[in-house]
Amino acid sequence: xxxxxxxxxxxxxxxxxxxxxxxxxxxxxxxxxxxxxxxxxxxxxxxxxxxxxxxxxxxxxxxxxxxxxxxxxxxxxxxxxxxxxxxxxxxxxxxxxxxxxxxxxxxxxxxxxxxxxxxxxxxxxxxxxxxxxxxxxxxxxxxxxxxxxxxxxxxxxxxxxxxxxxxxxxxxxxxxxxxxxxxxxxxxxxxxxxxxxxxxx
Length: 201
Hints:
The protein is mainly α. The protein is built from nine helices and two strands, in the order ββααααααααα. It has helices at about 35-50, 55-65, 65-75, 75-100, 105-120, 125-140, 140-160, 165-180, 190-200; strands at about 5-10, 15. The chain has a two-stranded antiparallel sheet with strand order 1-2. The protein is elongated and about 55 Å long. It starts with a strand and ends with a helix.
C-alpha cells in the first residue's frame, strides 16, 4: 500500500509525498482509435439494418464501446452518420481514382472496370451509397455530402475525358451500378461496355 504524507524542506515549504500522479481520463482514454471504431461500427449497422433502424445502442453493441463514449465523441447520431457517410464518399472516390490510374492508357475500360467491380465485389459500399441517396433526397445536409462525392468523381473522370463527358460518365456509372446491382438478371458486362463506349466516342 502506498503511504501518503507530508514533508517540509529547510525553507519551510510543505510538500505532499507518496500521492498518485493525477492522470486525466475520459471515455476515450488510452484508445485514440475509438472514434474511428465507432464510425466503422455505425457503417456496419447501417449496412445491415438501414439508417432508419440504426441507434446508439445498436452501434454500441456492434463496437463493444459504451454508450457514453459514443456521445462523448459525437454530439448526436446525426453527427456520427454525417461523419460516417463522408468517409464512404471519400472511400468510393478514392477507389475510382485507383482504378482509373490502372487504366490510364484506356480510360473507357477503366470506367467499365469500376462498374463491374462495384456490382460484383462492393456489396457493402453499394448498400451504403443507396442509403446515402435516400438521406440526400430528404435532408439538405446529406445532399452536400452527395454533391462533394459527385464533384470528386467528376474530377477523377475529367482527368481522362473532357468536362462534359466526365459528368456524363459519372451519371451513367451511377445508373448502371444501381441497375446492375438490383437486377435479378446476371450482370451484363457487354451492355456496360457498349454504353460506356457510346457516350465517350
